[in-house]
Amino acid sequence: MSEEGKERSLNFIEEIVENDLKNNRHGGRILTRFPPEPNGYLHIGHAKSICLNFGLAKRYGGGTNLRFDDTNPVTEDTEYVDSIKNDVKWLGFDWVNEYYASDYFDQLYAYAIKLIKDGYAYVDDSTSEEMAALKGTPTVPGKPSPYRDRSVEENLELFEGMAAGKYPEGSRVLRAKIDLNSSNMLMRDPIMYRIKFAHHHRTGDKWKVYPMYDFAHGQSDSIEEITHSICTLEFVAHRELYDWFIEKLGIFPSKQYEFARLNMTYTVMSKRKLLQLVNEKFVSSWDDPRMPTISGMRRRGYTPKAIRDFAERIGIQKRDNLIDVSLLEFFVREDLNRISTRVMAVFEPLKVVITNWPEGKVEVCKLENNPEDPESGHREVNFGKEIFIEASDFMEEPPAKYFRLKPGGMVRLKGAFIIQCDEVVKDAEGKITELRCSYIENSKSGEDVSGLKVKGVIHWVNAQEAAEAEVRLYDRLFKVENPAAEEGDFKDFINENSLQVVKALVEPSLKKATLEDKYQFIRNGYFVLDPDSGEKLIFNKTVGLKDSWKPA
Ligand code: ATP
Ligand code: MG
């Protein structure tokens, strides 16, 4: 069931879960996990995995562990751990346990010792080149390394020596002894442990050997008694190895299931690539609003509900595909339409003087905060003698059916009066500097008895009270749909015009904007305050009112 409660058919993972529950596998219990490696900020692809793992467990009365897959000391950092927790919470999910694969290092080491003792693992002194040469190809069987038949005693002594830091990095590895003829190359004696003299963000300098992904992930699942371990398709070939380790160790039988990663148009979806964008200053930070990161989307004004609805809508597939970013924007717009406060902001100010307005007079106009939400109420905006409208809402020589302001024409100012343009003032170069207009006295919105019919309604700000704001407008970060699939460096396809900074005059209520408030600048789009905002107001454009984007 979707958030709205609409029925849809079960996806293949839900079918598996329902079947397991029906057969009382694991006593009818479901426990999933979300296992990020803390080597970067989470992106929208992770959001899909989060929604899947947490959503599935929730739907079937189970829970989800948050497990940091921190087995590679070189790339991991506590900053990333904090941002990941923050992002998962912001998306609206709670984990039952917070775990770290590094907490299992002792247990994993003990598992390795057991496999050595049972004759299922050996220490190999071959160089990586030698190993590669012996490995064969999918059609040519591998050849045994000269170290494959070491005795259990020798293997134990060498592995303990590795762990004690007796041997240099790269000099030896621990390998599982499986099947050199397997058509699955991962089963041809995969590496379990390598020597690394690196400082780990949690275990410090205690360990000199670190487990490989394949000898950490499944065992971590098993230690936590995860019932359904869901990962992306590139791990299909790893499943056989996942099952092999669990079987040989005789530990809790977690099972792995795979689904297609989310790829989205006009962006890249890998932490390694996103890190390059940050380090090489193509963007300002991990949470730059152009980034496909959860933190970037939050800063841009996307809502957790929009992201969850998007994840639900795209569902899960067994084949890789590329999702149009417009679909995500559709859900963002849909949610923002529901919740955002309508305000007025003028981007290209053109001064309008109301000639028949008494000097110093202020008239309070009531504007609806959000017509989609009757509870949202009204706010007051002062009308006065001098206002600004958008320069584009006036045309001196308009085409037929132009319903905004034109010489001699009338237009309604949103929430205020009907005005008529009496005179166009220009400077020496002929540029329009000001419009002189008169207002129709009994035409105030809500109490209009003028009997006039005007088709156009335009927005405005009071010149006396408007606040200046910097507005950041964003475009796609890349010029091509799938930069990662192009030949050459993905960074060659960056859109150098993805950020445009403009000035605007905004109504005074925006001086009280907080980072959580969502606004619709009427007729202009959805906007949100940026954390860079201080004395000076800074807004980000979240998305336009309509899908107007077209490929170049
Ligand atoms: P990246 O290549 O961006 O670093 P990753 O897969 O290495 O991604 P992890 O931190 O290892 O990132 O991933 C945590 C979880 O999120 C994994 O279960 C992974 O399968 C899932 N995940 C990562 N990227 C995507 C994606 N694009 N779509 C769906 N799930 C994803
Ligand atoms: Mg990874």
UniProtKB/TrEMBL annotation:
Keywords: Aminoacyl-tRNA synthetase, ATP-binding, Cytoplasm, Ligase, Nucleotide-binding, Protein biosynthesis. L-glutamine binds at D69, Y213. The keyword Lipoprotein does not apply. It catalyses: tRNA(Gln) + L-glutamine + ATP = L-glutaminyl-tRNA(Gln) + AMP + diphosphate. It is an enzyme of class 6 (ligase). Residues 30-337 form the Glutamyl/glutaminyl-tRNA synthetase class Ib catalytic domain. Residues 457-530 form the tRNA synthetases class I (E and Q) anti-codon binding domain. Its EC number is 6.1.1.18. CDD domains: GlnRS_core. Monomer. Belongs to the class-I aminoacyl-tRNA synthetase family. This is Glutamine--tRNA ligase. It comes from Leadbetterella byssophila (strain DSM 17132 / JCM 16389 / KACC 11308 / NBRC 106382 / 4M15). The lineage of its organism: Bacteria, Pseudomonadati, Bacteroidota, Cytophagia, Cytophagales.
